[in-house]
Structures are given as structure tokens and as C-alpha cells.
Amino acid sequence: MSATVTLAHVAREAGVSPSTVSRILNGTANVTPDKRARVEAVIRRLNFAPNVQAQALAAGRSFSVGVLTQDTSPYYGETLAGIERGLEGSPYHPLVVSGHWEAAREQEALDLLMRRRVDALIVLGGVIEDAALQAVAARVPLVAVGRDVSGLSERCVLVDNRAGIRLLVRHLTDLGHREIAFIGGPEVQQDALERRLAFEAALRECGLEPQAGLMRPGDYTEASGERAAEELCRSDLPFTALLCANDQMAFGARLTLYRLGIRVPQDISLTGFDDLFAARYATPPLTTVRQAIAELGQVAAEAVLRLLAGDHPQLPRYVPELIVRDSTGPAPLLSH
Amino acid sequence: MSATVTLAHVAREAGVSPSTVSRILNGTANVTPDKRARVEAVIRRLNFAPNVQAQALAAGRSFSVGVLTQDTSPYYGETLAGIERGLEGSPYHPLVVSGHWEAAREQEALDLLMRRRVDALIVLGGVIEDAALQAVAARVPLVAVGRDVSGLSERCVLVDNRAGIRLLVRHLTDLGHREIAFIGGPEVQQDALERRLAFEAALRECGLEPQAGLMRPGDYTEASGERAAEELCRSDLPFTALLCANDQMAFGARLTLYRLGIRVPQDISLTGFDDLFAARYATPPLTTVRQAIAELGQVAAEAVLRLLAGDHPQLPRYVPELIVRDSTGPAPLLSH
DNA sequence: CTGTTAGCGCGTTCAC
DNA sequence: GTGAACGCGCTAACAG
Description:
The structure is a homodimer of 336-residue chains. By secondary structure, chain A is α/β, with parallel strands linked by helices. Helices cover 44% and strands 13% of the residues of chain A. The first copy, chain A, has 12 helices and 11 strands. The mean pLDDT of chain A is 95. The first copy, chain A, binds a DNA duplex (16 and 16 nucleotides) through residues 4, 6-8, 16-23, 25-26, 28-32, 35, 50-51, 53-60. Chains A, B: Residues 10-35 form the HTH cro/C1-type domain.
């Protein structure tokens, strides 16, 4: 059990003071070339690696940015990948904790991150009150993704859910669909509510009236999409298109349609929202709205770095893009 | 900018010594009820949260376990979810870093984790030399998943790739398939090599001879499966089943088959390996081998906790299970 | 039971 | 340019 090498060991071995070693490590001041060479040699020989905890304690910064995520769905997986990429090259590293869409657990996660003295925070969604986020934002730079935190709007990376849903509805009505069913997300979440409202509004814009019987609640999971689609198909209300509030539910719905022998898109057109990586590999490939999730994560990370550097970064507004694939087609004559 | 509250503040405010506060925090020793009550009140009032860095430095343990993962594929996503679950309830938290399947970056990741003084390590796959892992294993408890590290075999959570592949091949031959194509993984990875060898062996067991023309290399990504399937279909060698070394490549291959108008399973039977969450939602649902990935992660995490507690946990051996879904069916008369 | 004294490993003044 | 001394916030002997 080789005892850990410390900066002091290096100093002694190199015949210099600890401060000198520290200076070389951080480039804090000039050091004679030969001394520097000597120290660097010792560092390599002893395989010295500075204790980050000690550095953090002494310098007052931990070089870690806390990330409050929610679950392990592909959605957050892709966002985290973006964050990792955004932090790459910087001395900062992400410390990820899940809140599981429960205010209490989100608060615990935030507490944990604060106790670990993260230098900054990235918040992905969540249902915790804005006040709690404002509180932590008062202590460290904070950027939120997919959620508009009151009082911190200029620190939020958002997509325009309204516009995205409208693109889908337009696309479907252009194809001749008039009876469009809808599976929504958990409305405790901002975006889920926005998408449902946007769906109803877009329908009206197209001269159609939302029908309660064609709208089912889901919770953004595949299983809920599967179930909701079942209910919709069992009811006798006819529809030729099924718009799901996110891709995962569309995947679930796809399974139900497959089981019932309903063809996509010949019998029913199917759409999602998010453009998860998997959407392209669905059968048939899923028509959806691109959120560029990974990019959102990366942008958030970069914004955090700027904040940490004392900047006041301008967060870009993201406009969703319609991605037409094979899961949508002309409306059939209503028959099933 | 409310200055951070320290243990010393609490002590002063409560009229006790810092040690007493520390004792109450850690339950290190008995304290008079009234003193304890007084201190706890102050803690709540001041909203005191101990600095984990300082605790780590003083106590010599950081309460974090490092996780070396590789990429952000669903495979690792599910494993990480399992690890998180396994650590839940314990005072330990995961610190995740990606190695991107490059020895150099994996080494960097390990260095980073050691500098952060993680108390233990969980290694997911990777291509770094065993020696490097043995080196870190000498400093902290280490558990590896999906990789057999020489000298640390009793610390490795493994699945029997041979057995899994054999289940698939048997399943296919039982269905009458004789011409089975194969898309393999990157053979720098242990499991990919094992699976390819197992495929050839299983074929022979069934009295069939592996045909080089029906075997294509992939890299475990959807895109590589897509491409490899294209090549296979363009070649004039007939086959009635396509066995992919993992689910993701099967998803990619599925897209190619869809594009070419080849029906699954009527024209070609398709199989994967891993049983990712998404396998059940493929169209048609994918026949595959269950690895219980999330469980593997959880088991690894629990093993690490036991090691940290001084135990010598016995890691269970995982036997893969064949999951028959709709992507496989009787072999058609060769025609396409 | 509880306060006092030392560090944990490093960064950072401050003088030299 | 460089070393000595001090402090970051907390835990752990050590006495009492």
C-alpha cells in the first residue's frame, strides 16, 4: 500500500520549499528553469498527483460543476453527453446527481452538490420550486435547461414547445389528417403542459376542434405511451394520426400499433418530439421535432464556463426543427 | 452573497467547541441531550452544511466512488442507473468519467479519479491494459464490469458471452435456419472477440460451417450495424438469419432491412445481444440475450460497498437468458 | 462527556 | 525568485 505522495514529499525530494512546487504546479509565479526541471522530474518519478480536495479547500474552488438531472432516460443521457463535451478541455468536471422528478429528492441532490462545494450548477428540468433554485443561484452560477426559472430567465436554455408542436400539427393537417389523437406528458412538468396547450391551440389554428376523447395523459415513458395508445385504439373514436408529446411515448405507442396490426403510416401516422438518437432507428423512422438535446447540454456547459470566467454569456434561443421521416403519410379514408 | 457557514460558526453560536459539533454531526461520541439539541437548532437556523472537501481531507475518505465508463450509449446509461441504485442509501456517491474506449483517455480518467481521492472504483469495460487497473486496484478497492482483469478475476462481474451466443444460435437453428450471417463488435474489446469466437463455435456444434462472406465487423454502434447489414444484403450470399453481437447493431441492421423492404422475421430473422430497454420497443420486438445490465451495475456497486466495509464479497456469476420476441421466426425457403 | 491541540494537503500572503 | 508562516474547514487524538 504505497502511501500517498504529497506536495511536501516532492518539495523535500527536490530540495525546494512546498511553495515552489505549488507555484510550478499552478504557474503562479516564475521559477528558475533548473529548479523547475528538477521539481518536474521528481513529480514524474514519484508519480505525484495533487489532492484535489486539498486544492479545493485551500483555493476555495473545487473545479467541479454540479448537474442536477432527473432520470436515466435517453433524453437525459444525451443531454449529459453534451454537458461532458462542453466541459471538455476545461479544468472543470461534472458531478451528476438525480432528482427523480421529486421535489424532495431534488432538494437533497442540490444540498449534496452544495456540500461538495461545486463551483457552478446546471439544472435539467425538475419539479422543485423556482424559489429553491433561486436560493442556490445566489451562491453559485446556475444555468437551467428545459425549464424557465422565474427570475433567472436569462440563464435558461429553452426550446419553443409551442412552435415545435405547431410544426407537427401543420405537417399532419397538410397531409390531410383531421382526426388527430394526442398523448401528453406529465403536466407537473412545464414542457408537458406547454405541449398539450400548444396542441390544442395549433388544432384550432387549423380550424379543428380538440376532442377530449382523443387526448390521453402519459408520463413521458414508453410504457405510458404503450398504454395510452391501447386506450385510444380500444375507444371507438376514429383517428388517422397520433401525436405524442415525446419520442419515448411514440416508441411505446408504436409497439401497441404493431401488436394490433395497425400499419404505420398507412393506417395511422405517428409523431414524436425530441428527436432522440433512437428516433432515426425506429421502424419506420419516426417523424419528430428536433430539440438538439446534446447541443442544449453543451451550450449550457459552455455558458457555465463563461459565467465562471466572469462573463455574462448570452444564451441562444433554440428554434425547433421538423424532421420528417417515414412514420407520417397521407391520411387514409377513415375506416378502422 | 451570504458567506458560507462553517462548523466553527455553529460552535460559537451554540456556545460549544467545534469538536462537539463534529461529534454530533458524525455520531462519533455521546453528547448531552440538551447540548445536542442546542447545536442541532443552530445548525438548522444557520442552514449549516458541512464542507465535504474538508471532511474528506481531515478524515481521509471522500465518500465517493469513481466510475470509469466509456461512452454515452444506452448500454452504459443503464449500467450507471444500476450503480446509482446500488449506492443509494449509502453515504457514497458516484463520480463518473468517460474513457471513450481509448487507453490514453481511460488512463487520464483514472488519474483524475485518483486525484479526487475516490474511495473505490468501478470500471466498466475499456481497453486500457490490465496492468494499469492492477495499479489503481492496489490503492483502492476496485470492481470491474464486463471485463475480466487478470489478477482481479474475483473482482469482475461478467456474463457468459459463449453461453449467450450459443443460446441464440441454437434458437435459430431450431427454427430451421442454416445460413446465419453475423455482425461482430470491435474486437479490441474482450466481449466482442468472445462473441465472434462463440458464434463460430456454436455454428460448428450445430454441424454448420462459418462462412467468412457472411461475417462482417462492426463497432457496436447502430451506424455500423446499418452499414454492415447493407454490405451483407448487397453481396449475393444468401442468408435467412442475422445475428448481431449487440442490440444497437441489430437496431441499425433493422433500419437497413426496412429500407430494402426485407421483412422481419418473414424474410430474415434478426437477433441482438444485451436486451437493452429499447429491444422490447423495437418493431418487431427484438429477440435477444438478456444481460440484466442494470443489475450488473447494481451488483458492482453493492460489492464495492462491501469491500469498503472490509468484507470480501462473492460476486455472482451471471448466466445469460434467451429472450424470444418477434424478430425471429421459421426459416423461409431461401429465395431473396 | 467535552474542550484543546494537531494536523489532513495545499494555496497564498509576506518578507527576504 | 523563494522560503516561512498561516489558514481553508473539519476530524481525531489527547487530556481533563
